[in-house]
Amino acid sequence: MTFYSISYLTAHQQMNQLFNYVAIIVLILLIAITALMYLRHRLVTRYRDLGIIFFLLLLLFVGFQVTDMEKNNLQRSQTMQMIPFVKAVARDHHVSPQKVVVNSTTLTDGIIVRIEDRDYRVNMSTNGDNYTLSRAHVVNPQVIVKK
Prior knowledge:
The protein is of the alpha+beta class. Helices cover 52% and strands 18% of the residues. It is built from three helices and six strands, in the order βαααβββββ.
């Protein structure tokens, strides 16, 4: 089972999308090159066809990028809800927030909170403004804590 510390939750909010950016830039350059070649040799239609193919690939990668951005914004907002929760649990149990780890990066009902060496199951209210911790016992004692 993997647990996440508060420093992990604050530091790892964004994913690296370098591949999509590089692909978009390369496709824009290829479109420009094929457009210049087509303008130079108007009778050779393969440059026009290649330009259309590169443009369609560009639209595809831009669509991937927009979808990834929407997913990352949703994940970031859910992670940002987890940080005040971890701080509240630490304050209620009179421990440092660094001693509280959770097994999920999103705040949902049923997650496991580890405070020092004790495990608790979180029972969230329907509107999410309060919670109850009940003692839990983890079956697999091997735990990975990502800091």
